[in-house]
Amino acid sequence: MTATLTKPPVDVPAEPSQPKRPRDVRGALNWVATHAIGLALGLMFATPVLFVFLTAVMSDDQAFTSDLWPREWHWENFVEVFDKAPLFQYLFNSLAYSLLATAGMLLSSIPAAYALAKLRWRGRNIAFLLVIGAMMLPPQVVAVPLYDTWSSLGLTGTLWPLIVPYFLFDAFSIFLLRQFMLTIPQSYVDAARVDGCSEFQALVRIIVPMARPGIAATALFCFLFTWNDYFGPLLYTGEVKEQWTLSLALATFKGMHIVQWNSAMAVTFLTMIPAIILFIFAQKSFVKGITFTGVKG
Amino acid sequence: MTATLGARPAPGRGRARARHRLAVLGFMAPALIGFVLFFGYPLVATVVFSFTKYDLINAPEFTGLDNYLFMFKDPLFTKAVQNTLWFVVVLTVARTVFALGVASVIARLKSGVGLIRTLCYLPSLAPPVAATLVFFMVMRPNGGPLATVLDWVGLQSPLWFSDPLWAKPGITAIMLWISGDLMIIILAAILDVPQEQYEAAELDGAGPIRRWWHVTLPTISPVLLFGIVNSVILALQLFTQAVVAGSAGSGSADSTGATKYLGYPDNSTLTFPVYLYTQGFRYFDMGYAAAMATVLFVISFAVTIVLVQRMRKNSAAEEGGPGA
């Protein structure tokens, strides 16, 4: 092959494609190399999940060994973990927290984002800076007085301290929704006003339908964030087992079943499923949303 | 269109303006109340609490600068600051370089981009608790998959989350595994680089590496800065992974009742937020926790200002949008 390549092209006029060969070969090698590296990277991200799954279906004894592949497939492990912990209760709590918080976020954040993106008013820039500031603030900074307040209201030990704030203010969602709404041309809103729409009607009839992909992405992020939240439930429900969410329970489950890697990994895998399913159905929204947080300043 | 609006007859304007104001107020009202209740008030209260001794049961007692002075004498506070600094430096560098590297490779792919991007992004959607346990299982020194693979090539696995020296690198590995969101942001920025710039560089005889260095990198530098600031904030807030890795490493049966696992092993995973949580919500020394929260706030605030400035520059560069 190399010999053919080094041959001067003038010698083989019968095959005009010959002079291009060296580039093609290098191009092909390049193609193979980049795709091999890309695939290796993809696998690097996927294999830990694969190991979790394989360990989850191993027998109790095998899960303790260094075997990577299950000798026999114990699918019932996924069912048996429900006997070892009240997972349905935790699942219910997680869903209550995530769904109520997401609903509340939509009610409070869509109007605020609209006012920040499409209405002109004095103090708008300052308000937006405050939103960014709140978004960047570590939750631990405000935890002490908030815990104090909820505690004096007698609501610690429940998930309400986590849900209620979403009905008023969620900085990240307001930020993300505003970014999406900025991409809708102002002329649509102006046209609606000329047609005699009130601001509320312009929001509900024009902006909300047009911003639907952005709203979907924001709702997904809000749902996932609350579903994955650990600090909040630990802070407010740490002492009250019946109120635990899946994430919080999972952290404890591993400790209680320290030697049973298969059970621990079965629960871990079950906890990851909602995120995976959501992502498969709404991949575009996720990617758009995550891109918007970083690129469209 | 704007011209027609401007030429509108004067009569209805005053009322329209009042309606407009009412609309703004109505739309912003929940957010305004929420901001005051959940950020404004607690922020002020945190600073006030930081000058007191308060255990949640007895009334706060004013103690001046005692909490702040105690920080200098508290070896665990020093340890927590050191640990968090470690993450701010190592995690920020590792996360940015790693995400940039992976995104640069994916950006060069001609096919299968979607699949590989999906594989890279998926772990960052997993609950952080689950992701930490995944790595705890994969990296467990006796019989774990990673130890098995290391054994094949004749290496011995470190003890990871049971060894003070390896616990922080272990957590960093988890954080890299779940850095898919940053990868997607960088990937989008790379794919947005105008093709003409590459063609111009190619005409000047620049190879792929020089093109990446002289065209890609400068063009996406605002996004990289975003990634760096974002990673610093992430490192400052590191909590879940540290707590879960500590509790799993210590084999603690009760990860909410016992305190021994916090910072395990040998306080190597005691980050600033973890220590704040320990003092405030395990020992109920709310005053001291509030003082630490105030320190954390000042640092986060400084980092946020950097981010806001870069966003302002960005939106100023974009043509005429209503921007920040």
From TrEMBL, chain A:
<feature type="transmembrane region" description="Helical">
    <location>
        <begin position="258"/>
        <end position="282"/>
    </location>
</feature>
<dbReference type="InterPro" id="IPR000515">
    <property type="entry name" value="MetI-like"/>
</dbReference>
<dbReference type="GO" id="GO:0055085">
    <property type="term" value="P:transmembrane transport"/>
</dbReference>
<keyword id="KW-0472">Membrane</keyword>
<keyword id="KW-0812">Transmembrane</keyword>
<protein>
    <submittedName>
        <fullName>Sugar ABC transporter permease</fullName>
    </submittedName>
</protein>
<dbReference type="GO" id="GO:0005886">
    <property type="term" value="C:plasma membrane"/>
</dbReference>
<keyword id="KW-1003">Cell membrane</keyword>
<feature type="transmembrane region" description="Helical">
    <location>
        <begin position="28"/>
        <end position="54"/>
    </location>
</feature>
<feature type="transmembrane region" description="Helical">
    <location>
        <begin position="215"/>
        <end position="238"/>
    </location>
</feature>
<feature type="domain" description="ABC transmembrane type-1">
    <location>
        <begin position="91"/>
        <end position="282"/>
    </location>
</feature>
<feature type="transmembrane region" description="Helical">
    <location>
        <begin position="159"/>
        <end position="177"/>
    </location>
</feature>
<dbReference type="InterPro" id="IPR035906">
    <property type="entry name" value="MetI-like_sf"/>
</dbReference>
<feature type="transmembrane region" description="Helical">
    <location>
        <begin position="95"/>
        <end position="114"/>
    </location>
</feature>
<comment type="similarity">
    <text>Belongs to the binding-protein-dependent transport system permease family.</text>
</comment>
<keyword id="KW-0813">Transport</keyword>
<feature type="transmembrane region" description="Helical">
    <location>
        <begin position="126"/>
        <end position="147"/>
    </location>
</feature>
<feature type="region of interest" description="Disordered">
    <location>
        <begin position="1"/>
        <end position="22"/>
    </location>
</feature>
<keyword id="KW-1133">Transmembrane helix</keyword>
<dbReference type="Pfam" id="PF00528">
    <property type="entry name" value="BPD_transp_1"/>
</dbReference>
TrEMBL record, chain B:
<comment type="similarity">
    <text>Belongs to the binding-protein-dependent transport system permease family.</text>
</comment>
<dbReference type="GO" id="GO:0005886">
    <property type="term" value="C:plasma membrane"/>
</dbReference>
<feature type="domain" description="ABC transmembrane type-1">
    <location>
        <begin position="81"/>
        <end position="307"/>
    </location>
</feature>
<dbReference type="InterPro" id="IPR035906">
    <property type="entry name" value="MetI-like_sf"/>
</dbReference>
<dbReference type="Pfam" id="PF00528">
    <property type="entry name" value="BPD_transp_1"/>
</dbReference>
<keyword id="KW-0812">Transmembrane</keyword>
<keyword id="KW-1003">Cell membrane</keyword>
<dbReference type="InterPro" id="IPR000515">
    <property type="entry name" value="MetI-like"/>
</dbReference>
<protein>
    <submittedName>
        <fullName>Sugar ABC transporter permease</fullName>
    </submittedName>
</protein>
<feature type="transmembrane region" description="Helical">
    <location>
        <begin position="85"/>
        <end position="107"/>
    </location>
</feature>
<feature type="transmembrane region" description="Helical">
    <location>
        <begin position="170"/>
        <end position="191"/>
    </location>
</feature>
<keyword id="KW-1133">Transmembrane helix</keyword>
<feature type="transmembrane region" description="Helical">
    <location>
        <begin position="119"/>
        <end position="139"/>
    </location>
</feature>
<feature type="transmembrane region" description="Helical">
    <location>
        <begin position="286"/>
        <end position="308"/>
    </location>
</feature>
<feature type="transmembrane region" description="Helical">
    <location>
        <begin position="22"/>
        <end position="44"/>
    </location>
</feature>
<dbReference type="GO" id="GO:0055085">
    <property type="term" value="P:transmembrane transport"/>
</dbReference>
<keyword id="KW-0813">Transport</keyword>
<keyword id="KW-0472">Membrane</keyword>
<feature type="transmembrane region" description="Helical">
    <location>
        <begin position="212"/>
        <end position="239"/>
    </location>
</feature>
<dbReference type="InterPro" id="IPR051393">
    <property type="entry name" value="ABC_transporter_permease"/>
</dbReference>
